[in-house]
Description:
The chain has 674 residues and is of the alpha/beta class. The chain has 25 helices and 24 strands. It folds into four domains: 3-213, P-loop containing nucleotide triphosphate hydrolases (Rossmann fold), CATH 3.40.50.300; 220-366, P-loop containing nucleotide triphosphate hydrolases (Rossmann fold, 3-Layer(aba) Sandwich), CATH 3.40.50; 487-536, no CATH class; 556-669, no CATH class. The strands form five sheets. The chain has a seven-stranded parallel sheet, with helices on both faces. A six-stranded parallel sheet has the order 8-13-12-9-11-10, sandwiched between helices.
Amino acid sequence: MHAPAVSWFASRGWTPQPFQLDVWESMARGEDGLLQAPTGSGKTYAAMGHLLSAAKASGVPRGKGRLRLLWIAPLRALSSDIAEAARAMVDGLGLNWDVGRRTGDTSAKDKARQKKTLPEVLITTPESVHILMAQKGGSGRLADVDAIVVDEWHELIGSKRGVQMELAISWIKQLQRNAGRPEAMVWGISATLAQPREALHALIGHGRGHIVRADIAKEIHIESTMPGAFEKLPWAGHIGLQLIDGVVDVVERHKSTLIFTNTRRQAEVWYQALLAAKPDWAGLLAMHHGSIAKELREWVEDALHDGRLRAVVCTASLDLGVDFHPVDAVVQIGGPKGVSRMIQRAGRSGHRPGADSKVHFVPTHGLELVEAAALRKAIQHGDIEPKVPLMLCWDVLVQWLCTLAVGDGFHEAYARASVRATHAYAEMERDDWRQAMDLITTGGAALRAYTEHQRVTQDEDGRWVMRDRTKARRHRMSMGAIVSATMVSVQLKGVGLLGHVEETFIASLEEGDPFVFAGQTVALTSFKGLVAKVRKSKSSTGRTPAWMGGRMSLSSELSHRLRLAWDQMASDQAELEPELQRLMPMVHIQAERSLIPRAHQVLVETLVDHDGHHLFMYPFEGRKVHEALASLLAYRLSLLSPQTFNWACNDDGFELLSDQPIRWEDVVDNNLLS
């Protein structure tokens, strides 16, 4: 059965690896499963190889529009690379199948064609799957599928987008059972998962599945960029431009480099700074993030594939799976805040079986060197963040039921059975289901008096449908689980769409104000509706947009390793990581003036100055935890005596500031931290 795939591999000088053969054999038995393998090891062909090879071996003709393989990726940037890999194997096997993509970037013409006939292989995103199901006949076309592959499952599990996938897969299987057809095989792919068994159950629901782990050791080397003298380390900021010479050196020593930043604003700043430092890189340096226009992103991806670019400054838009063989160096600007994210980004270099990965870490301030050392230890010990599947997300369920009603409608018994079959809603009670149905049909107890919230009604066949076209159109326009601010299109005179920025940023500009976007300086000429028209500006300065979601927090696993690193420095152990050795002069000063917290301790410092009374705490648990601790501690202190606080936090700790003394004794005596 798999001889065609083996022969095609041989024609390209490859030999199927044991984990690829394991996946093919498992699929041949009709099993669901999860593949866990390092980045660049050949996961894509492992997941699609069986279906394509079996079709060739059995002499299956062209599918006449029947969907055979549904491939779901969390990022649209992945779809181009996966489609190229699929076309290569389809053409190599002589299958004469269509390979198509369906994302937010797909043209209206292609979407219209897919509305009539789906390709045999469709690469899409979770949101686009739901949009297809919201079309008349959409669920039926998807129910023809033989296999469903969810790529980079670790990026979806633990989020509401993951719950969306659980619901869609379960509904497809329900429709297949109703029609008496074999259920589609479901497979997940991931490079980094701490709890694969739980991840598998979340993907396939109540059924049993097979976990395949690739026995491939991939070394990841972290090398930190540090100035020659300790005194030159920056002690504040989040951009890191003080070390730009080190980044330039890395780029010049390699043929092609990906420079990862944590935010889109940071990418814009670094792109401009690198061009200013190396003007001769114009045309060889590019930028890639999700707010840049599709045409620009695709040009960057193609140029990177072809080896025409020296470096690309990018965000998480190029984190996952995109197969850029020419890339031989990765730079990480600032702490990635998570072990899995660092592994993923490091894997962009050495993106082929058997190759090691190397990442050059550039701290944006001195203390991030501790994070670099902690990351290295965490990777060596396999401390990967567990992804906990979400349970009982009622907002996602209500949206899902409206999606089914907008499409072909649903019979309540079938819909409830498919929902209960998912991991997310396995514990759903009958009262919970009744409340969800009540919300979509009457608006619920709170909105029952408003007719616009009475969206779904039952037709003569007992099927629940959304008849009102206006309400259906409104639902299709608001589907999804990604939270974002209102976006404004930026149109450059004589060029066209540059990309999108948040409305709040554009609204803060006056006509003629310059700002930096998509790698160039432009000036606002008009802002009407949700379109900002701009012209090229000769100004050498300008504001840089900021986007919602730019603040990331340390993961618990990395926080633990961070505390161990401080503990190691506190004990003055001989064998320190290079980054910790560089920080020892600062550690000695801190030990003289205060102390270095051990792994089981929390450092508390107080200070009185012209601003007021300060209390600093350093749990090293990440920004999100510190935000909660700061507000909780301020509230509890205010209960002891009326007092006003300001608070601030970062990944290392938090500060409370008051115009009145903050008595630490009150915190301890009243167990305010319990």
